[in-house]
């Protein structure tokens, strides 16, 4: 079994750690796919204005494409993205330095992700 610290170094998303790896295959093309599920390290939530808050307003799951990992030509990062209720700015989405603003889960991938989310992870770290 691979150590948790080695997997976190490989993925290398600052402020996050790897929770699970979901291995799969594209039904149409047969290409191997990998979904890397991330969790936060930080206990505080940061507004884009810089203010740190103890609680969040709500959260959603966000997915972005990542670089290929060996035979997994299509890989995805799945992580929670939070909205905070800042007294100065109102309800705003927390900015993440490693992702651009956009749709939480790509439309073409949504049915596959929902089917993965219902099943238990194939490999829990």
Automatic annotation (TrEMBL):
Species in which this protein is naturally found: Candidatus Hakubella thermalkaliphila
Name of the protein: Transposase
